[in-house]
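dude i think i finally got it to work??
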Amino acid sequence: YYEFQELTPLGSEGDVMIQRLADRLASIDLLGRAAKLLEHQVTYRLKGQEKSRIGARLAVIYLLDSKPAEALDVLQRTKTAGLPPALEAERRYPEARALAATGQAEAALSLLGNDDSGAAELLRADIFWRDRRWADAAKTAQSVLGERWRGEAPLSPREQTQVVQIAVSLYMSDNIAKLRELQRQYGQKMTDGPYSETFHLLTQRVDLSKTEFRQLAGEIA
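look at this
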């Protein structure tokens, strides 16, 4: 692309081409190169809502590349008034994640406000988890899963991760009664997954008096 970039079409056709190239680069984990392409777009080629939309995509790439400060910076630089609600949400979620990743958990939660969508609840659970607010993390993750334990379908990898996070959060907040209940609800569904041993360890061999066990739970967290 850089060898022949002068052949890039002008206008929206060229912008779409660059964005597709950035998507391909990101999909094979060349995040720095993908970010460089989109940075050029938001700096020199785009304006208005399109600049805000691509700014959100660039912020996600920075987050994937463990660069939350850069994500916040590009979101600030591409902020535009009067955006559609869907685009506002598309920008709000990476901003909240970036705030949490830079140690600004309260600002991240405030940004989510009263958003009760599934995406917002998942993000809240992750923010509480990152901030080691174990009771809040367990409560929020449980609300996301709902009564998934009653369903016949196996748990997805994401759901199994959530169950383990709930188990760790309940243990770290000393809520052993809820931990026992979690074992009764999800014990059978967690027997065949990649986290079966971890879940069994956390829910079957609980001993709050042992410092070593608490250290192990912290390591799992």
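The mean pLDDT is 89.
im so relieved honestly
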